[in-house]
Each structure stands twice: as structure tokens, then as C-alpha cells.
Amino acid sequence: MTVQRGKKLSISIQEHMAIDVCPGPIRPIRQISAYFPRLSPTSPTPLSPNPTSPPPALSPGSGASGMGGPQLLSPLLAEGRPGGGGSLSLTSSIDTSVEIHSSDSDDCTALGTLEFELRYDQSSSELHCTVKRAKGLKPMDFNGLADPYVKLHLLPGACKANKLKTKTIRNSLNPVWNETLTYVGITEEDMHRKTLRLTVCDEDKLTHNELIGESRVPLKRVKPDQTKRFHTCLEHPPPLPSPTAMGEALRGISCYLREWENEQLHSLEERGRLLLSLQFLPPLSSEDEDVEAGSEGRRNGGLCVGVKRCAHLAAMDVNGFSDPYVKIYLKPDIQKKSKHKTAVMKKTLNPEFNEEFFYEISLSELANKTLEVTVWDYDLGRSNDFIGGVCLGCQSQGDALRHWTDCLKNKGRRVERWHILTNELPRTMSHD
After folding, report:
1. φ and ψ of 42, to 5 deg
2. Within a 13 Å sphere around the CA of 261, how many CA atoms are in the beta-carbon half?
3. Which of 167, 324, 359, 424 has minimal Cβ neighbours within 10 Å of its Cβ?
């Protein structure tokens, strides 16, 4: 703006600034952009410098204003159009089998998208994840490409024991895997409380592997025996909470924060899965004894424990494997005679035992007992390493309690169930 003495006032208005020319002192007012809603970067709609004109009505499918009636501007553009914040096409929202997550930030287009399928087979307790493809991944190497692979974890309790990994696709930003990864021993409780994390990484042989982005899916969104498709935008991993920093900022609820911090410090690590079968055999009658020969130890009835198999065990040896075996106790064990042990399986994280052990005990006595099952890694010449364990009894919780009560209520029926092995030793157990 320039004002010359003795001459008429002249005003120059820039494209982005409006000047109030009412009588009185000259004062700038807000930018014109504040009078209009935020438009898409690709929208060709011109901005009018008149702040009194109504804001243009935008439809998600058109770039011109004033067409299609007043609608909110969607942050998602049709597939194939550049500059959008998501990857959802206008027709994909109709397909209920496809779950597409979008983000208002630029990370969605900057990191890429991931397509995969999930299916939970309830009868076999297996979770199948088919990793299809990724598109538009962020370049990670000097050649403008990447060497991507996908790894899976189950949350909470992520560790090497429940990590699954696809093959690596070399020099590609649009890799196609079509690879199915399977978790064994996934219970209904896991499907309600677990979250599957899919992480896309860039493999570097000379340096450490780099993370490109991740996607998380609560397993409760997957219905049993149905395949669900997902097309998700990769995101940066959420920042880890700092209990100490939070404690300083939230002094008013320090008691609750202290409980949360202790829970985080003492959280149990998952070490694998164990398939057990329990069967309480009632006492044999005189007629049954004639039919079943060689059943002298079972004529008074008791508990039959079957150790079937383990899956996704933690690797305890330097070769990336373990030499697992299973020990079981029925406690309290005053006479120290309840210990049983399976054979040792060499160099495997998914051993199959298929061994059964019998405890001669009445049903009333069994109700006051606790079955402790522990998995160990055999080491020659030194003490064996504890892998994980589980306790089944009337004082247990979750799947362990349900398995125990089902066994006591259904006499003579064999009940099988998968159990999560944790890194905490049972309190009543001691080393050999």
C-alpha cells in the first residue's frame, strides 16, 4: 500500500490479502482462506476474494464447486487420482468383506498400502493370514527401491516365539507375496483380546533392517470360519508410553499410575502354546474290568493327562531352536510321586509328543488339586532352561479354568484345549 501526500489514496491488494477500506484507519483483516473450507490440493476451484459470498459446496467426486448439493468434502479420493490422503475407491465401501483404513495425514500415501486376508478355523484353533501384496511403498535404498518383507506379531505379548515372517521381495515398491502364515493354538479368548500386528520392513544385509510401516487389526473383527479381506494404509508405529514421565505429569492419579506401571513391569511374556487333553475316568465296575484287560492301575479311576504337542516355542539355543520336553505335577504333592516327564525332542520349536500319563485319584480329591505343566529346553552338561508353563485348577483363570471344570463335569470324556505358555514359574514349583 502506498499513500502520496496531496494525492488520492491508492491501495494495492495482493492475491492473498483483503483490505478493509471503510472510513477510519486502514487495517488488514483475515486471509481469504479463513473464509472458506479447506479444499483438496487437486481441486481447480478458484477462490473468490469476496468474503461475503457463501462457501462453495463440494461433492466427493467432483472438483468444481456448487455441484451436487452441500456435502462435506471427503478426505478420500477415488482410486487412481493423485494427491489423496487414503486409498479407498468410491465403490469399495459397498463391499463389506473389505476393510480399508485411511488416515488424514500424508503417511498413508508416503508409506504405502498393504492387502491381506485373515481366517480363523475354530475347529483346528488355527489363524491363517494370507499376505497378498503391498503398493506404493516408501523407497528405502539408494536405488530408489526397497527389499520388503512382512512379519507378524500377536499383541499383547509380542516376542520371537509368536513372530512369523514372509519371504523377501528384492528391488520392488509394489511387492506381491501371496503367502499364507499360520498361527497354531489360537483360542477363542485370543480372538477376543489379541491384536495382529503386520509390519512391513526393508531388508538390509550390511546394516540393520529398517521399518517401513505397520498395520494393526483386532482379531475380534474376524468371525470364525469366515475369510475377511483387508486393504490398509501403513502407519508409523505408535510411540511407547513412558510411565515415569506420565507419573510426573499425572500426580493426581499416582496410585492408579503406580498400579499400571507395576503391571507393565511384571507383564508375562508368551513362550509358545501347548495342546493338552484331560479325561477323568470313573472307577471301573466288575463288568468293565473283565472287558478291559491290563487296566489294573485305572480300576479305581483317576485323571488321564495327554501331552499332545507344542507350537511356536521360544528358541533357547544359539542355533535358533530348542530341545523341548514336558514335565507335569499334580500338587500338593506330599509324597513327591506325581512327577511325569515326556521324551526330549531335538531341534524343534513345534514338537509332537502324544504321550499320556495317569494319576489314580478320586474326583473329590482332584477338585482340591492343581495340575502344573511346564516345558523345558534340555541342555547337556548344564541346567535345563525353563521355556514356559501353565497351571490348571479351581484357582486358575480363563482357558485354564474352563478346561479344568469341563474335565470335572464331563466324566469319561476327553477334553482338549490349547494353552498359552508364560515365562513365569509356578510358585509351588522348584528346579530339579
Report:
1. -95, 0
2. 14
3. 167
Instruction: Find out whether 163 and 169 touch, Cβ atoms under 8 Å.
Output: no
- Strand pairing report for 148-155 and 164-165: antiparallel
Task: In whole angstroms, give the CA distance from residue 256 to residue 245.
Answer: 14
Average pLDDT, the chain: 75
Q: Are 186 and 125 in contact (CB under 8 A)?
A: yes
Instruction: Report how far residue 156's alpha carbon sits from residue 193's, in angstroms, rounded to the nearest whole number.
Output: 8
Distance of CA 399 to the CA centre of its chain: 19
Residue range 120-151, pLDDT digits in tens: 999 999 999 999 999 999 999 999 999 999 99
Give yes or no for a contact between 228 and 157, defined as CB atoms under 8 angstroms apart.
Answer: no
112-234 topology per CATH: Immunoglobulin-like (2.60.40)
- Give exposure, 1-39, as e/b (b: 16+ Cβ within 10 Å): eeeeeeeeeeeeeeeeebeeeeeeeeeeeeebeebbeeb
Cell numbers found for residue 270:
508368551
Percent over 70 (pLDDT), the chain: 63
CA 183/CA 178 separation, integer angstroms: 17
Burial of 382 (0-12, 13-18, 19+ CB in 10 A): exposed
pLDDT band for position 249 (cuts 50, 70, 90) = low
Separation between Cα atoms, residue 214 and residue 138, nearest integer Å: 12
Contacts of 145 (CB under 8 A, 6+ apart): 139, 171, 172, 173
Write out the DSSP string of 216-253.
EEEGGGSPBT-EEEEEEE-BPPPPPP-HHHHHHH-GGG
> Does residue 259 surpass a pLDDT of 70?
no
By C-alpha distance, which of 318, 416, 408, 296 is closest to 363?
A: 408
Q: Which three cell numbers stand for residue 284?
A: 471301573
Q: Going by C-beta distance under 8 Å and a sequence separation of 6 or more, which residues neighbour residue 217?
A: 99, 118, 195, 196, 198, 230, 232
Q: How far apart are CA 278 and CA 71, in angstroms?
A: 61
Cβ–Cβ under 8 Å, residues 132 and 181: no
Give the rounded distance of the alpha carbon of 368 from its chain centre: 37
Cα–Cα distance for residue pair 107/249, rounded to 1 Å = 29
Q: Is 29 helix (H, G, I), strand (E, B) or coil?
A: coil
